[in-house]
Fold this sequence. Notes:
Blueprint: H1 3-21, H2 25-30, E1 32-36, E2 43-46, E3 56-64, E4 73-78, E5 86-89, E6 95-97, E7 116-124, E8 129-134, E9 137-143, E10 155-158, E11 178-185, H3 191-200, E12 216-218, H4 220-223, E13 228-229, E14 232-236, H5 240-264, H6 275-384, H7 386-390, H8 412-417, H9 435-444
Antiparallel strand pairs: 1-11, 1-14, 2-10, 2-13, 3-7, 3-11, 4-5, 4-10, 5-6, 7-8, 8-9, 11-12
Amino acid sequence: MSEAVKTLLLSLLLAVVLVINGTSAYEEQSYKALKFGNTLADYVKLTPDMRPFSNAFSICTWIKKLQRGSYPSWFSYASSTVDTEIWINDDGSYNWMFHNHNRNVGYLINIRMGEWYHYCFSWDLASRRASIYHNGRESGYYSTPYGRRLKTDGFIVLGQDLSTFAGDFREYFSFGGELQKLNMYSKKLNTTEVREIYKAGRCSHIESRKGHRFSRQLKWERILEQQRFGNVSIVDSCPLNEKLHHCHERVIELEEQLKEAQNNTQPGNEEPSSDDATTITTVEDDGLSAELEELRLNLESTTNRLSETETRLEKAEEKLEKTETRLRKTGAQLDKSKKKVSTLKKMLKQANSDLENNVDLLRETRAALREKESELENLENSLCGANCFKASNSSYWDILYTSTFFNKVVTDELIGILNESWSQLENFKGSVINEGFIEFFKTNFDS
């Protein structure tokens, strides 16, 4: 088996392992994004070797704009003598080079809040042309001074703008968005190359292939390893189905390369040294085909499992949607119930107030009733005569304390009012009925 075939077989094995068991370190990093906070303390600082970019460069990345403002900046490069050697913001209005050269394309492109878009900024000394690309299309360009090279003694900041070489960050330059797959190439990518990267998609691995392997000098996977300041976090940005899709494309690509390599090793393309060598090559190729078929079956099995998982996920999402609908209805009913309870509370509060008023009125009525009862009792005592006192536990002489008799002179009229058993009073006619008079009779004549 030739070395080329062995290499391709190993690559194919790796691709299937990525699908079945996960992803490689590089591909796992390519699925990650950097999410920036919106303060001046949230940034990433890089000090790469900038010498490869002195005569040409291309800066390409995927961007998600998450905050409004005039100057949210995601890339800034300052040298020891020029603070804005390169400065790029997130809406296309600032694409600066060499301190005072810029082309505003913000009004030509449609950047929506919260949506990913692809951006490339490319330049070379030979053409002096600085091109700005949005989603694979050149949106604008400008010319730089003749003979002006990129200075290479500076550093890069992501998420802020370097107003001076020392830093001097400003709040209104804070990026506050997300970046994914930021790579810097040591050549000026042409329109075809930029469009190819864009069409491959945000979750592809095209940057590590297609002739970019050697020109990609500042790599995304290395940027993710750099120190992050403030609120800058690494987040997973690619869904599983996209990861599988790109792995599947990679397997197909490797299969094609493998077939091409097999054709190049067939008798007639390579002169065998002996009949035995030809036999060994045929046997090895048969074994290779069997291994390739096994790998393909493994990939199909994994794809089927993913499809089943997606089906279950769709059903779960439907159930969740129904549950959310019921929850919204329940919430609406709960709101109505809360309004009813609030109304009932108000009614109850009013009823309590009315009850308190009625209790006060009842107390007043009860006091007035007691007063009337007392008056009635006095009236009854004055009207019922001696019979009232006979029915009570008091002496019947106590009737003489009533207003009818007390302090009155005993007369025939008063004697007639009393019971005829009080005949002794006739002997005291002319006496005043006072306390001594009453107590005398109670003592001597009470039966």
